[in-house]
Amino acid sequence: MFRDYLNGEISWPHYCGPDVAALRERLNLTQEALAALLKVSPKTIFRWESEAEALQPNYCIALCMLDKLGEGVFTLMDQHQKHFTLEAAPERRDNLTEDLADSVRYNLEANRREPGIPEPFDGKAVAELRRRLGLTRRGLAEELSVSPSTVDKWEQGDVALRGPALTILKILWQQGLKALPPTK
């Protein structure tokens, strides 16, 4: 398919004013919202939709991606979502947009199945971690070589988690007590 593109046999779709307006409405976006998404001014969107200005090819490509991915593009933009590599579809369909959409769906489903680290990692997360590890506050304090009052303050939110303590707790969340060095 890429060879077809290079040979000029296929090209990106061209969007005209009514196409932009229809896409924007299908995605429930205002002109201002689409402008923010494409990093243009709202006046530019207005000029495109009123056909007072032609779209540049790079914006046609961006609109095509929005058109094919739909609202899934916002999930891809979410900085809290894990990033995955694209995988080939099991069978070859010679349809790049369908393969891309399938890969996005697969990766989003995999992300939902994988237990993630809570964000923000706050007092509730520390209490949940302690329960998952089957430890009392004193037991967690002993494992981490901190005072029981420190664990109390973490769980109550009196002390903000940061630095090495936060890193260690996140590692424990993912790997459990096996991540800690053995005690002597």
Question: What's the helix and strand layout?
Answer:
Layout lengths: L1 H5 L10 H10 L4 H8 L3 H8 L7 H13 L2 H6 L18 H18 L9 H11 L3 H8 L3 H9 L6 H13 L9
Helix pairs in contact: 2-4, 3-4, 8-10, 9-10
Describe the model.
The chain is mainly alpha-helical and 184 residues long. The protein has 3 domains: 1-70, Orthogonal Bundle (434 Repressor (Amino-terminal Domain)); 74-114, no CATH class; 123-179, lambda repressor-like DNA-binding domains (434 Repressor (Amino-terminal Domain)). It has helices at residues 2-6, 17-26, 31-38, 42-49, 57-69, 72-77, 96-113, 123-133, 137-144, 148-156, 163-175. Helix 2 (17-26) crosses helix 4, helix 3 (31-38) packs across helix 4 and helix 8 (123-133) crosses helix 10 (148-156). The model has no long low-confidence stretch (mean pLDDT 78). GO terms for molecular function: DNA binding. It comes from Sutterella seckii. This is Helix-turn-helix domain-containing protein. Keywords: DNA-binding, Transcription, Transcription regulation.
Descriptive labels:
184 residues; mainly alpha; 434 Repressor (Amino-terminal Domain); 3 domains; 11 helices; HTH-type_reg/antitoxin; Helix-turn-helix domain-containing protein; transcription regulation; transcription
